[in-house]
Amino acid sequence: MRAPAGYPLPVHVTFYGTRGSCPCSGAGYRKYGGNTPCVALEADATPLLIMDLGTGLRALGEVLDRQLHRQGKPLEATALLTHLHFDHIMGLPFFRPLQDPGAIIDVYGPSQENMTLQEVMKSVVQPPFFPIEMSEFRGELRFLDTADDDLVVGNAKIRSRTVPHRGHTLGFRIEADSKTVVYLPDHQAPLDRQEVSDAVLELCEGADVLIHDAQYTDEEFTEKHDWGHSTVPYAIRVAADAGVRRLVLFHHDPAHSDRDIDRMVSTARKLPDARRLADITAAYEGMTIELGS
Ligand SMILES: [Zn+2]
Ligand SMILES: [Zn+2]
Question: Regarding the domain with residue range 11-291, which homologous superfamily does it belong to in the CATH classification?
Answer without folding.
Answer: Ribonuclease Z/Hydroxyacylglutathione hydrolase-like (3.60.15.10)
